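pasting for ref. prot 1 ->
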Amino acid sequence: MTDWVFSQAEWPQTALDPAGPHAASVHWLHMGMLILMVAVVAITMLALVVAWFVRLERSPVWIIWTGGLAFPLVVLVGLIAVNSDVTRAVSALAGPDELVIEVTGKQFWWDVRYPAEGGQEAIRTANEIHIPTGRPVRFRLLSDDVIHSFWVPALGGKRDMIPGRENELVLVADRPGRFRGQCAEFCGQQHARMALEVVAHAPAAFEEWRDEQTRPRLTPDHPQLRAGRQAFSDLGCAACHEIRGVAEGGRLGPDLSNYGERDRMGAGIWPNTIGNTAGWIVDVQRMKPGAEMPSYTDIDGPTLRAVAAYLQSLR
């Protein structure tokens, strides 16, 4: 029922359609507590109705012991036991084959790094996290500026990202799909636009994606794309943004090596189209006030279109 009502298509950021064992455990704990709450309210209302119509000179002692002590005690002990079981199940998700991904929260975007493993090179992306299905993923959560909070409702609980401290969260996706996440801690002017997407692939597809990320971006054949690549350098974009094999070393802004294949831009807010990309370059402070990138208001039209087209070609 909840799968139908709260499907990802209609509610892309919901905890009521779990896509992994971690999220499912928390979901069913929540549903159990909801049912229990309804039962307690119903019993309380029934007791009030009975008390209204049946006036006793003295209440039976067993009502006091049962309703005032035994019932709350049983409920609380039951909740503690179930909560402990869920916590233990969630903690057991990690394993020797876990994938480690480092995520750093910044105002206002997500820096994503995959350390080298098993002969594979380290890679870096932004705002969109790709993971394999069926494999535990250990997220190392950091912050560069203020307190953020990493939260992907369909995959599990949230965890704070605190400057100067590393927190961890293990999640598992049990089916492919796109799952929207959101910073769950007020982090400044653009907190509401601090979103991200987790893309879960079948294991083979994930390995293909990862191998593709290590390929240097080649010089484009089309004249407009070549002009865009040159303008990217001339405008100084490489001082903040890295493009693998083209402009390396820029660490202040998001890595743009695979910018064109991302579904959304601006930390998960706008569809990633050439029009939105051009709008972002020329007036980023209108689209996301408070972002550290300056608006290039004096850029001419042909150059703007060339840079936007070049960024869209990065796949």
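and prot 2 ->
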Amino acid sequence: MDIVDLLQSAWPYLLKGTGYTLLFAVSAMVGGLLVGGTVALLRLSKWRILTWPAAIYVSCMRGTPLLVQIFLIYYGLPSIGIQFNPITAGVLALSLNVGAYLSETIRGAINGVDRGQWEAAMSQGMSHLQTLRYIVWPQALRLAVPSLSNSLISLIKDTSLVSVIAVTELMLATKEVISTTFQPFPLYLAAGAIYWCLSLAFEQVQRWLEARMNRTLAR
């Protein structure tokens, strides 16, 4: 079978795997933003009873391999009566992992906004929450966009790890086609090209978001 025929026959499987890869990446990014935003606010709190658990969570998630976290959620939790299907377990593991990194990104972005912005807003009678929501957060978000985009691109590649719990994302789909065609080089090359194209697409989204936010804040 020549390369053109090989890629034509493999394309439906790779396309399905790419769909799962996108599903995992986007779902985990949304979940990670919710987790990361919450953890960042807890770490910025003045109360140690809130900052300590958040700091321990970030340390644990960043200090252990993502693969271990996937195994723990999918194979470990059923032993204490908590069971997830492979897709839910994969999205949950990726969300919790990337959430720890995003929390540091968001915390750094909020701290990066000049302290005078807080003082000026609060001197106008705004509460702490109103200042964060209307004054600080829009500026912090613009600062955080490049790092958030990097996290999403890393997440696209990390989705290949969920193949260990039998989810047919792009990497596992590629392996399945290779097991029947015995032609690893062109198929792994095709998988790499698809990952690259996905990363390029999200880089374009990042540039568009940055330009849009710069225009909004310049008004």
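Residues 49 and 64 are 24 Å apart (CA to CA).
The chain has eight helices and no strands.
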